[in-house]
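Session log. Operator J.P. requested a structure for one protein chain; no other inputs attached. Running the standard single-chain path with C-alpha cell output.
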Amino acid sequence: MENQQKVKNLIDLRVKAKLGGGEKRIASQHAKGKFTARERIDMLLDEGSFEELDMFVTHRCYNFGLEKEKYLGDGVVTGHGTIDGRTVYVFAQDFTVFGGSLSETMALKICKVMDMAMKMGCPVIGINDSGGARIQEGVTSLAGYAEIFERNILASGVIPQISAIFGPCAGGAVYSPALTDFVLMTEQNSYMFVTGPKVVKSVTGEDISTEDLGGADVHAGKSGVSHFKVENEEEGVLMIRKLLSYLPQNNLEEAPLVDCKDPIDRLEDSLNTMVPDNPNLPYDMKNVIHAIVDNGEFLEVHRHYARNIICGFARFNGVSTGIVANQPNFLAGVLDCDSSRKAARFVRFCDAFNIPVLTLVDVPGFLPGSGQEYAGIITHGAKLMFAYGEATVPKVTITLRKSYGGAHDVMSCKQLRGDFNYAWPTAEIAVMGAAGAIEVLEGRAIAGISDPEEKAKYITEKVSEYNEKFANPYQAASYGYIDDIIEPRNTRFRIIRAFQALQTKKVVNPLKKHCNIPL
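Structure written below.
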C-alpha cells in the first residue's frame, strides 16, 4: 500500500507540474492567442516522442517572499524528442510561471539540454516567451544568461540552433536568439528589444509602441534580426520542421538525402527567354529558382529583409543546397550593406554545415552614395567576399546577365575558389556598364566634339563597340574564368551534374585559431 501511495504521489506531482502556473494563467495565455510551453512542444515534435527532463526542479530564491511561491519546472520545459524521426533537444519558456522570467535554476535546465545536444550532435530549438531576468534573483539571473550565451557561442557551427520568439523577449534575453543560426517571430504576439518603450521615452524622449520598436515586422524587414516572420505559432512550428529538413544534425554530417522524382534532365524552355533583351529591364530571379530546383520548392530565408538579394534552401536531385541570388526586381539587384551582410551570414552557415552553395549572378555593382559609404559598404562587402573565399563546400556559380566591377568578384567568382563557374549567353562580365566605361575611356574625345549630333553618334558607336566586346561571356571564358557557357533551359541538369562531380571535394584552409572576418 505504501508503494502504491508513492506511485500515486508521483502521478499527482506530474499532473501538477504540467499545469505550470495554474489553470487561470493557462487561460490567460490562451486568451492572448498564445499556446503554453507544453502545447508548443507537442505541436513541434513527432507525436509521443517528447521525453521531458527536470520536471521537478524549483527555484532557490528566498528574496522578496519568493520562497512562498514555487512551481515545479520553474518556468521552462526542457527535454528531447524527434522531428521526422531525427532527434532534437528543445526548451520552451513557460510564461504562466513568473512570466517566464529567467532564474538561476531555469538557466541550469536550459544549459543542461544545450550540453546534451552538443554531446549527442543534435539540433537545439529554443522557444522564447519570457519577461526577462527574474529581478528577485539579481546577479544569479544575469549569470544564468551568460552561461546560456557561452553555450550558444561554443555550439555555433557545431549543431544547428533555432530560436522561436512566441512572446516577449527583452533586455539580456535577446542575445541568446541573436547568437543562434535562425530566429523566427510571430506577428502581433512577439517582440524583441534591448530596451523597452518606457526606457526609450525616459532616456531619449521618443514615444514609440512595442510593435514599432521591436515587433516581427521591424525585425524581419528593417533590422534583419529575424530570419522568418510567421502569422501564428502553428505556422511557426511547421516552418521549424521544414527548415530542419534541409539541415544536417551537426557539422560532421550531411543533410538528409530526399528521394527525387523530378527528372534531373528536365528542360525549362521558359529560361531561354527569361532575361529581357533590354539590359535595363528587371525580371524576377525567383522565377528562375523555382524553375530549376526539385519540384519548384524553395525555402527563402530573410524574405522581407534586403530584398535585392535572395537566400534560401532548395534541393537538386534530393541534395540540400543553399542558394544566393541577386534580385533584379528590387533595386536592380545591386549589393549594399544589408544585402552583403545577409548573404555573407548565409554562406557561412552553409559552409559550417556542409551544404553546397549555388550562386545566381545578375549584379550591376555596389550601391553608390555617401549613405552607403558612411554605413561601411567597404567592410560589409568584404564580409561577403570573405565568406565565399573562406567556404570549402562545393560552389557553383551561374552568371545570367550583369556581373560588373567589384561586385563580380564578390559573387563567388573563379578566383574566390568557385568550383564551376557557368554563364548564360546573355551574361555581361566587365569592369562597368558601357555608358560609364565610355565616359571614362573616351571622355576627352567626347569633350572635343562640339556638334551635338556628331557627339551623340560618336558615343553611340563607342558604346556599341564596348558592348560587342564585353556584353557577352566569351572574353571571360577565353581566360578560363567561366568554365562553360550553357543554354539557359539546360541549367538544372548542368547544376546537378556539377554538384555530383563535386561530391568528393576536399579543401583545407590554412591552420589557424580562427579567422578575423571584417565584422
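Operator note: Residues 452-470 form the longest helix (19 residues).
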